[in-house]
Specification:
With 112 residues, the protein is α+β, with helices and mostly antiparallel strands. The chain has helices at residues 4-27, 34-43, 50-62, 85-110, and strands at 32-33, 66-71, 78-83. It has a single domain (20-110), classed as Orthogonal Bundle (Arc Repressor Mutant, subunit A). Helices cover 65% and strands 12% of the residues.
Amino acid sequence: MFNKEEILKNLRLELRKGSLVLAVLSQLKDKHYGYSLVETLKSKGLDIDQNTLYPLLRRLNNQELLVSTWEVTEPRPRKYYELSENGKIILKELSIDFIKNNNLIIKMLKED
């Protein structure tokens, strides 16, 4: 049985997943710890759950796209993340791809 709401929900999740990496990388030009990154993204209109963000940060760190450091400036230590040199290269390339794909899709959608 066709369930429009369920289908839309799943497709929107897929679309969002594809954009999260680019959104996170774009905000790590400056150093952030997890919660500050969540708040920065939220202030720009992108809500991301910490249970989604932290595994993503670990994966990007393992791929050497991020540099992580522990800092103890508050009562408890915080792990900060920022783009590595490799991350800057990848961000630039992904940004070009995203803009190109976005423009193509907009063009196709306008053909209707």
